[in-house]
Design a protein that fits this description.
The chain is of the alpha/beta class. The protein has three domains: 104 residues, no CATH class; 145 residues, Rossmann fold; 104 residues, no CATH class. The protein is built from twelve helices and 13 strands. Helix 1 packs antiparallel against helix 6, helix 3 crosses helix 8 and helix 10 packs across helix 12. It is globular and about 70 Å long. The structure holds zinc ion (ZN). Zinc ion binds next to helix 9. The site of zinc ion has 9 residues, from helix 9.
Length: 389
């Protein structure tokens, strides 16, 4: 049995810290979230929804029922029992079906903020979500950005992830200032507790933080990299299931949506490139950027290259010369396209980009040369690997 106690609030200078004690297989531990004190008035202390969702994977992974010495949302309880737990167990065969046992259920709508929020990384998806809601009014207008340290800055958390979190925040804060929005930052030890791959668990980690602020968010938009037609039960690409999981985490107070589902990655890139506020802030890179370079993005990793090529094909890359090393990319451009075409296992986003390359007639003899070169290189590497096994 995994037992979660009542949430407890503490203050430390201008920070507020909400935490719970929990016990799993006779071991006690503490899960905490810390955030700026000024958001305390929007914090839910009456219900333990956030902690339940944060620790749900721990229950599923270890096969322990979860008992809470605190109330939870009635709606969330219903969704967990009838949809969520079954769906998660279906996609991951290692999870076990568990029971949730709250002290009581609540039907109260706690929301007072009557506004909307979304996570902001300054990547293509989160910026698309923001601009896609440009003409919305309350409670659907995005008044707040969120920035959470729950695993996207390093799988298992710790000091390194916290440093990257703080570093990336500078860019997020600068963009938010430009578009006149506030950022709600939340730090947590959830990563250290879960010790699970972020890629398999990120959706519930993020929603766990958002659930702390049900009094603020009437609506919360979750940016997923997927489009409607990517939906599927696939253990390798768990994001394809977001459109089922995320809305089912809604409560009486907050509704969750997966946003920008109508756009392909190319369409999202095109959408954001119409807004000059993105030119100095687009951050798609998988590498932390404090490491001796001028631009936010490394211009070398697969996410950087993919985005730069898309922008180039759209005729927009030069607008982003402050955040990418455009010259370096152009020198290597044909090699990159060749490499993409030579890939044996193409991801959905690879295939989409290849279609776009074909449409724009970018495949010339140089690209074909690099394609063949990359195929030979891949075969050679494979042969060497099998020889020295
Ligand atoms: Zn990069």
């Amino acid at each position: 049995m995994l037992i979660i106690e009542e949430p407890r609030l503490e203050k430390n200078n201008d920070k507020a810290i909400i935490s719970v004690q929990f016990e799993l297989e006779n071991q006690r531990n503490e899960l905490w979230y810390s955030f700026p004190e000024k958001f305390e008035k929007f914090l839910v202390t009456e219900q333990a929804d956030a902690f339940l969702i944060g620790l749900l994977f721990l229950g599923l992974k270890t096969g322990n029922d979860i008992k809470l010495n605190a109330p939870i949302s009635s709606k969330l309880y219903y969704s967990l029992r009838h949809y969520l737990i079954d769906a998660l167990c279906l996609v991951n065969k290692n999870y076990k079906k568990i029971r949730i046992i709250p002290s009581s259920l609540s039907l109260t709508d706690l929301n007072v903020g009557n506004t909307a929020g979304t996570g902001l990384s300054c990547g293509i998806d989160s910026l698309s979500t923001f601009y896609d809601h440009n003409d919305e009014v309350a409670p659907f207008k995005i008044d707040y950005f969120t920035f959470f340290n729950v695993g996207s800055h390093g799988d298992h958390g710790g000091n390194n992830a916290r440093l990257v979190f703080k570093d990336r925040y500078k860019n997020v804060e600068a963009f938010a200032k430009k578009v006149n929005r506030e950022v709600l930052t939340v730090d947590s030890n959830l990563s250290e507790i879960l010790e699970m791959k972020f890629q398999e668990t990120y959706n519930l980690r993020t929603i766990s933080c958002a659930l702390l602020f049900q009094k603020l968010f009437k609506n919360y938009y979750y940016s997923s990299g997927t489009r409607f037609d990517h939906y599927g039960f696939n253990n390798n690409e768990i994001a394809d299931l977001d459109m089922l999981i995320i809305p089912n985490l809604s409560t009486e107070s907050t509704s969750f949506f997966v946003s920008a589902l109508k756009y392909s990655r190319v369409e999202r890139t095109e959408l954001i490139s119409n807004f000059p506020d993105t030119y100095n802030h687009l951050d798609v890179c998988t590498h932390p950027y404090s490491m001796n370079r001028e631009e936010i993005n490394c211009s070398k990793c697969y996410k950087c290259q993919r985005t730069m090529l898309t922008l180039d094909l759209l005729g927009k890359l030069d607008l982003y010369s402050k955040v990418f090393n455009v010259q370096k990319f152009r020198k290597n451009r044909n090699n990159y396209i060749g490499w993409l075409l030579s890939k044996k296992k193409k991801l959905t986003l690879d295939r989409e980009l290849i279609n776009f390359i074909e449409e724009t007639g970018e495949i010339n003899w140089q690209v074909e040369f690099f394609k063949v070169k990359n195929i030979i290189y891949r075969k050679k590497t494979k042969l060497f690997q099998s020889l020295f096994k």
